[in-house]
């Protein structure tokens, strides 16, 4: 499976979850974008979401993570090496943009959201879909 298809699967998973919760959300189109989903709250305010999807248990690439505003969220999705199994639900962490820096590691050649840090310190964000309601 290509990286692009993994990201699409993750974006549609998040969108599906939001719809199941009765949340008014729309997928944005394009390959190089910083907003994957837009949520319209009942009072007409907007929330933007950036989805990061992985097939395996690795760190999420973070070179393009820049936003820190209160209305922006990152949803980290991992298919735990079971993406080909449609009966498997992936793991997902919903992290406010203002908190994502707590999980970022910077190396000489790249920046990542550290899976080990998310697993160690991110329990409050796992399956944290209620922030969108």
CATH class: Alpha Beta
Low-confidence stretches: none
Major sheet, described briefly?
5 strands, mixed
Helical amount among residues, as a percent range? Answer: 10-25%
Count helical runs.
2
Please state the overall shape, judged from the principal axes of the Cα atoms.
globular
Order of helices and strands: HEEEEEEEEH
Mean pLDDT: 93
Structural class: alpha+beta
Task: Provide the CATH architecture.
Answer: 3-Layer(aba) Sandwich
Strand content: 25-35%
Backbone CA Rg: 14 Å
Distance between the termini: 33 Å
Sequence of strands across the biggest β-sheet = 1-2-3-5-6
- The overall number of domains is 1
CATH topology-level fold name = Trna Endonuclease, Chain: A, domain 1
Find the count of extended strands (DSSP E, 2+ residues): 8
Describe the structure.
The structure is a single chain. The radius of gyration is 14 Å and the shape is globular. It has 2 helices and 8 strands; from the N terminus they run αββββββββα. The termini are far apart. It has one domain (about 5-130): Trna Endonuclease, Chain: A, domain 1, CATH 3.40.1350. It has a 5-stranded mixed β-sheet with strand order 1-2-3-5-6. A 3-stranded antiparallel β-sheet has the order 4-8-7. The longest helix is centred in the first third of the chain and has 18 residues, at about 5-20. It has about 130 residues and is α+β, with helices and mostly antiparallel strands.
